[in-house]
Request: fold
Amino acid sequence: MRYVEVNGTRVSAIGVGTWQFGSKEWGYGDDYATSTALAIVQRALDLGVNLIDTAEIYGFGASERIVGMAIAGRRDEAFVATKLFPVLPVGPVAQWRAVESAGRLGVQRLDLYQVHWPNPFFSRQPVMAALARLQRVGLVDRVGVSNHNLVQWQLAERKLGGPVFSNQVQYSLAMRKPERELVPWAQANDRLIIAYSPLAQGLLGGRYDADHPPPPGVRSNNPLFLADNLERAEGLLCALREIAATHGATPAQVALAWVIRRPNVVAIPGASSVAQLEANVAAADLELSDDDDARLTDESGRFSPVRGASALPAMLLARQEAKRAAASNEGDVRSG
Reply:
């Protein structure tokens, strides 16, 4: 495992994202939550991964509980990060919820406590003052943010009165907005970018394309998986497959290797199995050439998916077609 040292803290270049732990929307089932998820975290620790990222909102506390069970007896091997969901982010509420998260995780100290989203209706002063107090009493080591732009990150740091260690943002070959300001600022100021969705929810794994769309589920809410966007991604997916073949790797490993090749950037892919976790971790040892990097960057720049409000009509149409197909299938089963 390769590590990144930022602001006196050493974290693995590949971590474990745990949104799917205990979250029913992924459709992994109870066996995943009670068995596979625990095995994923424990195998990650075996392989030298120390960054385990969760949040109180993931499975409404279930993810934190699963992580807590997985690291029991191995606390010193894990850099545990969780997130405060910023509904009513006032001092006493933030402090109590930090205590609740630590309790579910079974830890005495949160290695990294992140504000999950900026709340436009509240000043950052109360929540950051509360997190500063939690640092002083030793319940929180590092403070971070998530989904913050640069101005919001810098403001949070001023209100904290100390370093806001990290910003967890969506960053991948399919989403490079953080490169405009966040990544350069992190590199210049000894801060960390934690890339979530580094495989764009599986788009960059090469499994899905215009002829092989994903099944209904979480990805149905992601415009990247619209038929038009899957067609637009073909150049990027082709580059990932070809570069992967030259390295004896997978497209997903190449996509992860591209992300963590950036200084001060680590990635937290999720995993549906121990085997997938092991494949993700192996990406930390994949050495892309400058030519590989340049080709991927160029193809990524050419990928221009339909996003935001522009994608809504196509997403609505796709949902309606999926409902009609499901109803037709149900009718066939009944008639049969």
User: Anything to note?
Assistant: The chain has a mean pLDDT of 92. The longest helix spans residues 312-335. The longest strand covers residues 140-146.
